[in-house]
Amino acid sequence: MSLFRPPAGVLLALAGLVSGAAVHASPEESPFFEDMPTVLSASRLPEPLHEAPGAVTVLDRDFIRATGYRDVARLLRLVPGMQVGQERGHAQWVTYHGLGSDYPTEIQVLIDGRSVFAPSSFGGVNWSGLPLTVEEIERIEVVRGTNSNAYGANAFLGVVNIITRHSRQDPGGHVEANAGTHRIGDLAAAWAGGDERIGVRLSAAALNDDGFGSLFDGRHTGLVSLRSDLRASTRDELTLRAGFADQRRDLGYPDSVFGNNAQRTSTTHNGTLHLIWRHTDGPDEEWMASLYRNHESGVDRWNASAPPAYPSVPLDRNVSSMRTNAEFQHRFALGPSTRLVWGLEGRRDETDADTLFAGLRPPGFELYRAFSNLAWHATPAWQINLGALLEKSPDTAAQFIPRAFVNWQASATDTFRAGYARAWEQRNLFDRYGDVRAYDPVSRALLAWPYMPNPAARVPKVDTLELGYLGRFRALDATVDVRLFNERIADFVIREVIDPPMPVALPLRTSRFVNLPTPVVLRGVETQWRLRPARDTELLINHTLIDRRADDATVTKRTAPYVASLTWLQQYGGGWSSTASLLRMGPLAGGYGFVPGCDYAARAYTTVDLRLARRFTRGGRQIEVALNGINLGAPHQEIADRSEQCLPAHLGTPVNPASPMGWLSLAVAL
Questions:
Q1: How far apart are CA 166 and CA 163, in angstroms?
Q2: Which of 12, 67, 249, 472 is deepest in the core (most CB within 10 A)?
Q3: How far apart are CA 217 and CA 89, in angstroms?
Q4: CA distance 512 to 516
């Protein structure tokens, strides 16, 4: 495709350059930029949004609450450039600019700075099993663009940082219940209390539904999370965050080939402990150390079959993983116009999954990082951000990850930015060592060898060039953010069919992970508008166009060429409010979807989410009642299961369409 018509945001940004450059105002004189939120995730330095080295979208608590969404992943649909889809009710596929594998690892996902990437063999994020409730989120910062120089390899294309509420915010209790179609039945409760020295916030939830209804995809999630903040002195604070999630999910299809993805119920358990110490010597200096440990285990087993010779062949994806991570950082001012943050990080992952690694235990994975970011106000209008990270793991050479950005505040309402960044992507254990074989349980004869290892596969690398604009148009009370990008990815990983070293042909094809010999290039433009055309009306408009270039056509289909969304938030009298979101997603083939002869992408679709709510007070308690609906409008499919989709019985008909879902919610502040 070609970017033949730049969106209105680009044209207005250029107009702002012409009109705004003639009237310069320093940051201290700008009433507009005084209202900009301070973000932490772009450089590890707290910076006003217009000084951040890159594009950052902030979803604050009020906006999150207004959507009524039951999970975090659905919120990310309303961020420019994000491409999100569901293969089933509890399976979220979340990437920035697409390209993701079956378990995407191209964006780093954090909770209070702690990575929630699964330490298990596949990596990725279990979005429906995160150990936190939506209610305890203070805000979500999404860094749209390469940010590995701040957070390492998995920030390959961006960062999602979920920041929870301080334990001393809004003391008291909160109870919320949801009930609706598809047997939706949720119950969540939270309590916060303490004094000026110590605060405690305890949250618990049980989330239940039957998924899309047409699939075997019900889920039950139970979770408990704790955050406690201790002010040990006027300069020292300790934060403890602990979380545990227990989940049961229905998986599979009744007619999968040889029962390779048969219907079954899996269970997962996820427990984490995170301790943070902060020592503050003043507004411009802070020392921080953190330690976290995460344990994840899962049981996912079923029986395949190839009658009459092999009526029952046991398969499983059982896994147990442990991650230990330690980090130290120091932030301080080098002078009145220069600030610096530097730090060290070490991580160790251990995984045990017999069936996924041919009965062998893969080696423990260790990773070490040293990072630094500098922000320098060369003049009141010009800021330079420089960053570098050095990362080393046992099976790869040391990787140097640089970033350089320049931000120019051309006027009181216009800021321009330009930058370059490089990143490397660490491959997960399964990509490197995955070795899956199926045996006759009696004779131990090899029946299938679907995955072979390729530890020699090289680590992908991306070079990103970015131009951006952030400004306000006072007549509309509007803020606009424009990002133009060029992302060139070398050694992109794909799956290829190979012939295993066997004297006898096997009934199923074998594959392994290899590097694409030519680069993948994504270039395009993102626009985000926030408008307040009236006092009680807010509009959020996002638009993304991506020109995808790769020699392999199946790779380009893993990125949707366009995404657009419109969210309308309206306040009425008497405590009434409404939220409506309209999403248009281009055609997308999520994940590898490796099935020989099946090159399938879900068609473009449009979907609508609606919420109508009323807040009122009874007996001194604040109550909110809301009616919520998602996936409204025409039926659509978001991410296809290609193995199932390409069966003759399903050709031409989406096998896993997303179902409209509605529920009534009741929230009471105690």
A1: 9
A2: 249
A3: 6
A4: 12
117-136 burial: b if 16+ Cβ within 10 Å, else e: bbbbbbbbbbbbbbbbbbbb
Cα–Cα dist 86/75, whole Å: 13
DSSP per-residue string spanning 473-514:
EGGGTEEEEEEEEEEEEES-EEEEEE--S-SS--SS-EEEEE
User: What is the per-residue pLDDT across 43-78, written as a single tens digit (0 to 9) for each?
Assistant: 999 999 999 999 999 999 999 999 999 999 999 999
Which phi and psi angles does 666 have, rounded to 5°? -135, 125
According to DSSP, the residues that pair with 435 across neighbouring strands are: 357
Angle (CA) 483 484 488, round 5° = 125
pTM for the full predicted model:
0.92
Task: Write down the pLDDT at residue 18.
Answer: 34
214-239 b/e with 16+ CB inside 10 Å = b?
Answer: ebbbbbbbebbbbbbbbbeeeeebeb
Tell the residue number behind the tokens 């970017």, with chain if given.
Answer: 3
CA distance linking residue 359 with residue 346, whole number of Å: 28
pLDDT tens-place string over residues 596-616: 667 888 999 999 999 999 999
DSSP per residue, 68-133: --SSHHHHGGGSTTEEEEEEETTEEEEEESS---SS--SEEEEETTEE-S--SSS-S--GGG-SS-
Strand partners, 510: 498
Residue 379 token pair: 């003049």
SS3 150: helix
Give the SS3 label for residue 432.
helix
Rg from Cα positions in the chain: 25
pLDDT in tens, 620-651: 999 999 999 999 988 899 998 888 888 888 88
Q: Quick: pLDDT tens for 563-576.
A: 999 999 999 999 99
Q: Name the token pair of 288.
A: 């921080």
